[in-house]
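Section 5: illustrative case.
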């Protein structure tokens, strides 16, 4: 770790090999309906130049343009201690860890601190787009909104709604699974996603369907999303998800790696070192009325961006 932080070398041959590998990945993604739908959605949600607009793995144009010195300069500017978080979890003595890190990273100085992100203008109208990829047998739909950062007072309710609607990366039972996949036999996969970010995090829904059922699927998604802002979550559904989420941190903390990731998140977003202990109470305090109001503020179907990617009229 110290070598990477203090004395990186960026060998030209390794740089060229990695760039070629990433270019292969980008080209493969351009022929993948799920990847194309997600990328096009990000382009609809964020303005040019915004960090969340471009794919993390770059584009063919950006990868071809980058040179080894670009990496060295980026590392020199950003891989610095100001704003860095080092989390250590295990059977260790904190004083020994601190002394060891200080010794190993002696001379590591400077940095610009953590990045800041400008606000993203709220969407005022719905928008749809289709990316045609000939020869495909599946169409993928991605929809969403650019919403709030981790510090926003509506964040927890929006996170809860994403889990209720589409799992949000957990094994929780969701409306997309019950009412879209099971009831209608509609989707090959389905999920909603919303997570902590320093800028306007996207609240998104992703689903893969038979191309002949795209319109039905899009209409069904809109109808199910409207329910979030027009109906109170039934008490039994609310209580079941609360119970799941109250216990879920225990599952997340089964290994040192997961504990480290959670503590890093707590520090990154200044949630307070007692956040893990407070989290079950915060979840229990959510009400059906609050969830409905938050959905009405942020998840308006009349402002949603929707992208499909798949075959055209073949």
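Designed sequence:
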């Amino acid at each position: 770790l110290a070598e990477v932080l203090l004395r990186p070398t960026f060998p030209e041959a390794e740089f060229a090999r990695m760039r070629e590998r990433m270019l292969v990945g980008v080209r493969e993604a351009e022929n993948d309906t799920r990847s194309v739908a997600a990328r096009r959605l990000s382009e609809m949600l964020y303005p040019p130049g915004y960090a969340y607009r471009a794919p993390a793995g770059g584009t063919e144009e950006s990868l071809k343009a980058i040179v080894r010195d670009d990496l060295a300069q980026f590392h020199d500017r950003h891989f610095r201690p100001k704003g860095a978080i080092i989390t250590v979890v295990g059977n260790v003595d904190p004083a020994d860890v601190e002394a060891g890190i200080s010794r190993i990273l002696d001379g590591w100085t400077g940095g610009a601190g953590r990045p800041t992100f400008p606000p993203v203008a709220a969407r005022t109208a719905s928008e749809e787009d289709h990316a045609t990829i000939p020869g495909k047998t599946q169409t993928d739909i991605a929809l969403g909104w650019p919403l709030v950062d981790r510090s926003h007072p509506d964040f927890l309710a929006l996170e809860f709604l994403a889990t209720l609607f589409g799992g949000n990366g957990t094994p929780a039972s969701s409306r997309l699974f019950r009412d879209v996949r099971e009831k209608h036999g509609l989707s090959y996969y389905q999920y909603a996603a919303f997570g902590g970010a320093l800028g306007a995090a996207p609240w998104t829904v992703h689903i893969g369907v038979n191309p002949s059922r795209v319109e039905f699927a899009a209409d069904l998604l809109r109808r199910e999303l409207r329910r979030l802002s027009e109906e109170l979550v039934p008490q039994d559904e609310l209580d079941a998800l609360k119970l799941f989420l109250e216990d879920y941190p225990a599952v997340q903390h089964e290994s040192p790696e997961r504990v480290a990731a959670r503590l890093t998140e707590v520090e990154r977003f200044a949630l307070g070192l007692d956040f893990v202990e407070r989290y079950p109470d915060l979840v229990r305090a959510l009400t059906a009325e609050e969830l409905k109001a938050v959905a009405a503020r942020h998840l308006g179907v009349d402002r949603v961006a929707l992208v499909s990617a798949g075959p055209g009229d073949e």
